[in-house]
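Cross-check.
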Amino acid sequence: MLRFLISIQISFALGFSVRPAMVVLDLDDCVWTPEMYTLDEMPSTPIYGDLNGLGDGVIGVKSGYETIRMFPGALQALQECYQGMWGDMRLGVASSADTPRAAEIAQAALRILEVVPGITIRDVLARGWDEGFDGNVWIGRTPPLSSDKSRTHFPLLRDATGVPYEGMVFFDDSNWSDHCHMVTMNCPGVVTQRTPRGLQYSEWLSALAKYEAKYSS
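Predicted model, tokenized:
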């Protein structure tokens, strides 16, 4: 609980005056682990535990013998977004899950893992958008998507949400393909942040600080 309260105090203390309209998240090795292409079975049995002192909720879900879990930094960031700590900043997803099965598993996990008790990741992703809107979530590489997020996911995000590239911050592990570099080159205006060890809370703050520095003048 103390760690969560400290993170909230930090976001206020830093006094971010310029915030992106949308934060775009990769999923595998950024929001959660393991990577979906390594899994065969649809998520099934939820695992309950403490959600940063906000009560017990679904902290993991079984997929066969594996457990899908969020990285602590990702959980903190999503909790802050849900609680309105970052104003009207909204969320999106750009994930190039390797196979249709991996994309299905990812979609299911979004609807099971909780950010606060009773509120799933998918619920938080929907915050601020019109009811039923899903144009902020693009998962997979089946057409119209591809393995190159800068050529497919991001143009689709921009067109569906109406948020220009200058209004976006993007988090991606970039361990296999450097999506952050590709997005920087092909989607000018997007501020990117690599998360090679899964999203760390320090990386969350760093990226938002970079955005403010870029667009505050």
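DSSP finds seven helices and eleven strands in the chain. Helices lie at 2-13, 72-82, 100-110, 121-125, 153-161, 179-186, 201-215. Passed to J.P. for a second look.
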